[in-house]
Amino acid sequence: MGDISDFLTPLGFALEVNVEMESITVGGVALGFGMEVNSHLKGFFQETVLEYEMVSSTGDILTVDAESDPDLFYAIPWSCGALGFLTALKVKIHPIKKFVRLRYEITRSPQELCDKMTRLSESSDAPTFLEATIFDKNTAVLQMGDFADSVPNESQGDRRFIDSPIKPSVNGINWWWKPFYYKWLETFIAKGGGEEYIPYSHYCHRFTRSIFWEIEDMIPFSNHPLYRFFWGWMGAPEVSLLKLFQGPVIRQASVSAHVVQESICPVRSLSNCIENFDGWFGVYPLLVFPLRVYDRGTRSGFLTPHKRNLHGPGKKWGIWVDVGAYGAPREVKEGRNWDPKVNVRGMEHWTRDEGGWQACYTDMFCTHREFREMFNHELLDKMRARLRCEDAFPLPYTKMKPEKGIVDLAAEEAAEKAKGTFVKG
Hints:
Blueprint: H1 2-8, E1 13-15, H2 26-31, H3 39-42, E2 49-55, E3 61-64, H4 70-75, E4 85-91, E5 93-95, E6 99-107, H5 110-122, E7 129-136, E8 139-148, E9 169-170, H6 181-191, E10 194-199, H7 200-203, H8 215-218, H9 225-231, H10 239-244, H11 248-257, E11 259-266, H12 270-280, E12 286-294, E13 317-327, H13 330-333, H14 340-353, E14 357-358, H15 368-374, H16 378-386, H17 396-400, H18 410-419
């Protein structure tokens, strides 16, 4: 994503869904899932894909679009390589402007945030960019943004990359010496909200430096002004590299003391989700991205929406919200034991019951049967049979299930076997 931004932004364009983290790959968000703060208007990254090029299990090169092979086209998102090797994509781009005008509004309860997020995300004149950052159970900063060609009073000197005493200001948030964006956001709580202009080149990857807010768990002093000034230019540690050298003992310890979880739930369930996340994890800040999900009937694929959660003309789409928790649970910080299996499975059950989905890159402690109840496999299974994938490519669950020694699901699987509902993973 960073390479694409570096190429497109100077030309005045961006990917239509320009995923935040610079190191995320286009193939990953096409076959997994990708979202951004304009996904309440555009949907997941998959909605911007026009064409896939794949190599099948038989070595054939397949060029797939919505007209040539609609069943396969709509089965590919979230398939995680279960249908073939992705070799190329054709995706939508759109024109951008120089600045993003950000307005910050403070909400003081989960229900207030839920009501405002529902109204804004479903509105016919919704802001171009919409998200919220929750700093405690009751306090959140709602961020609403739109493109802007210029900034009022910009003629009074070159203020593109410095804060200005004249409001509204221009804030180049991604300069290495600046406070992390989420820390800067938190300052607006005491101010009661505010407004500023951010260069789009800074805004589109605003959480990369801090890995959202994970970097302070890795480097506790990383937001100190001296650290930022002298070493901030090096950027954040590469997460994939850290995982590569993570042995089984460290991996087990991190699962018991650290959370990376996301629930994609209907927007009207946001208030309950916040309350539940506080009980399950007690991790703050929380990320909230609203997402438009489309109902395509039998071609909805993994994300087949429940009819009760649809909205809009003809009930063809609805708004879900991705709520993300990243960090050490409250119990761990307070020196108490935290049970990852009980709490993560609690989140999974609630998300499934609400008609939502769990982010598939996180630790999933569900059985294969429970996974298939959350994600509709009908179209994927049909395409795997057609393309002879069963003995060539593993199922998504086979790739995502926890490795041996992380969580014990023997009791849950035994109960399923006793009921005759067990599905081998």
